[in-house]
Amino acid sequence: MELVPALARWLHLLSGIMWIGLLYYFNFVQVAAMKAATADGTAAGISKHVAPRALLFFRWAAVVTWLAGAALLGGYFVSAFTLSKGYAGIGVGAWLGTIMLLNVWGLIWPNQKKILGLKPATDKEKNKARRVAFLASRTNTMLSIPMLFFMATGWHHPF
Amino acid sequence: MKNPLDSLWGTVISGVVLTVILYEVVKNFLN
Fold it and tell me: Where are the domains of chain A?
């Protein structure tokens, strides 16, 4: 066992579970919970105490997952991202993960800051932010399905 | 047409369909 790839794989899995676990929490649990909580006037508990903490671990776990994945690819990083022969399977997985990371930092987090009141926004801006963040989060949930297939099947590559 | 991402089932089914498409693309064109 080589130490650096083993540590990179370990960290990739740990942080990946946190990232995708929280993504599934948002999509499978919190969206429906917020709807019900808004209806009975208890949504502030989630938006004030739960969502900011979940988003903190979510966005930083995404960064750690990507960096550990890049370390795990090591010298095959370029081969994977250029979808070279024999590396296209893991390359597609790596691209999907990269798109998801960009979605987290470019769309989900900036819009969640407006929704949660961490950044000033009018009601109209908040409503727009809610829709964009929701669709970006759902897009990541959709992309996680093929991403995990290509990451986990070990298809035509040594990882 | 309704956006499939508005429902959880639509999201999951879209993900599975995308998986099959990408699998076929990699198998037939990139390997």
Answer: 3-152
The pLDDT tens digits of the residues spanning A124-135 come to: 999 999 999 999
Q: Kindly provide the ipTM of the predicted complex, given to two decimals.
A: 0.96
Cα of A107 vs its chain's centroid, Å: 11
For the stretch A84-99, pLDDT in tens is 998 999 999 999 999 9
User: Between B11, B23, B31, which is nearest A142 by CB?
Assistant: B11
Interface of B with A (CB under 8 A): 3, 5-6, 8, 11-12, 14-16, 18-19, 22-23, 26, 30-31
